[in-house]
Amino acid sequence: MGFWNRNNKKSLFKKGNDLFDQGKYNEALKCYEKVLEMDSNYSQVWFNKGNTFRQLGEYENAINSYNKAIELSPNYNSAWFNKGSTFGLQGEFSKALECLNKTLVLDPDDPTTWFMKGLFLKEDEKYQEALECFDKALKLDPKYVDAWLHKGNALNFLEQYEESLKSLNIALKLDPENSDIWISKCGVLGCMGKLDESIKCFDKRLKQDPGNARIWLVRGIIFKNFEKYQEALESYEKALELKPDYENALNYKNEVMELMNF
Question: Disulfide check for 168: which of 43, 100, 185, 207 has CB 3.0–4.6 Å away?
Fold first, then answer.
């Protein structure tokens, strides 16, 4: 390849990356494709092309691009990781885990990979295995907030409520303004049968984050579970006021209205 082609290839690759960073994904793709016309064995461009397809929601094209990057560079750890996470986005958890296991062979001390593996195991309702992965992530990074959060959620699914609260309280110490953690904590209190404590928990967070429709939704779900249908309805309506196209809130609202014989 001549000098000018090498320079042009680097320039186009940089331009594609800049466009990607600006959220101009279709334009970035065009740049990457031009680079690959010059050098089809450029594994990093295939990887970035995969990332671009993923941002566009074109998951099959993303996986095909990651496959090409891996074909050219079999130990391309980031390509294995992103391929796995893309399978996970599609709900193909067994394929996702195969890729993440390969990533862990290449780098067994990466807490993010252990966390992601745990996350997909949790989504696949394999809660005990998920806990083991979250614990490995936390051993490597004790301040990994999302690992504490999802460990708490997995423990909740296993009905280990006290242990769940311990994990969630650690997460809150690390990130006290994280509404997702507050929602999980309030939900666990509800699962423990502590309605008053659960609602106080929701209301405390709502003082800080009143525009969060998800808090209102889950608050409604807790009321519904205790057959407090009027209070549930009011929470769902508040969620819909904040987010009119909130499908989950609308479905729960319709369900509770049926229970109230509206």
Answer: 185
